[in-house]
Amino acid sequence: MSFDSFAAAHSTILWLSFIIAFIMGLVATKTNFCTMGAISDLVNMGDSGRIRAWFLAIAVAILGVTLLESMQLISVDATRPPYRGSNFAWLEYIIGGVMFGIGMTLGSGCGNKTLIRIGGGNLKSIVLFAVISVCAYFMVNPFPGTDKTIYSVVFYDWTSAASISMAGQQDLGSILSRLSGAETGTLRLALGLLIGAGLIGLVFRSADFRSTRDNILAGVVIGLCVLGAWYVSSGMATIDIDGETYSWTSYASDDNWSMLEESKRPDGIAVQSYTFINPIGETLRYLLNGFDKRVFTFGLAALFGVIAGALFWSLVSKSFRIEWFANLRDFITHIIGGIFMGIGGVLALGCTIGQGITGTSTLALGSMLALLSIIFGCAMTMKIQYYKMLYGKEATFIKAFVTGLVDFKLLPESLRSLEAL
To answer: What is the pTM of this model?
Structure first.
């Protein structure tokens, strides 16, 4: 798709981001796709249907990225955020992932679910959105009158010291290429096909899952939406100026930008797909800048697209309803959840969609570690809540935590402190 100006290309890409996200929001609402709900179903009821849908989305995204990269239709080597970057911040992936998992449990859903609930009329999610926005914004932007961010004050000194600087990129294909000497592209293709096909095989082993159309629909469509966003942002649009051809990203970053285009360069021009915590933080920047179109990013377009898609389906299905906090405790729990989600999501470089599907589709080691950490943080929080509900004051945090680890087979049965009912 060729354009004669960057402005036209940029506008088209933002609209495509919105439209694809609209489809994602609509389908996620219709099918009740929810990553926190998926973990809850598995932990509390032994129902694997929705978590299989989540992993089907991951498999579709992995296979799609693998094939499109092998055909040189896209490249996800340099992305926003840098999933395959050489800085393997393992401690930040773990801590951020666990924090996000805790937060989304307390906040009744991940970033994507928060947007879906806003579209469905949930006022609690608007409050949660505001808290996430403030925390995510100040994780990367300084407090007024200072040069300090939440990250620099709380995390930088000790988490950055643990980071490992790799000799190259951190995706599995690049790592194995350095170890074996084999060609990176070949290994990426082989690993992507193997992992993607393996996940699909595991997902469809369940007869119950094969009979649930909504879960299959959710997994396939959401995986394709993530893939579609990668394609849209990774060179689909070209700009032809004075006989020179530029991609959307290369034109925006060119040293001659100011000579080629009179308007100032917009923010967030990069190869990217869907992630929602950082864009939620970007809404505060958009507001503080007086709704300046230069700070309206690909992520913001996606965010509004998901809300619009959820609103559309909730109106069509007549499921739209206003919901508010049940009591003060419910309010405080959501506030704490929002703080953990905003900080943890930025620290881990993404959420259940941003790292769990988008990042994992690049086969980045950090994304996989973040995904496991999110699942662990969410599942452990649910276990602690469960035992607190059953035993009250008798279930101290330590007892509930240890018993949860026993339930997950991470500690021997002899260390069980509380019996499951």
So the answer is: 0.94
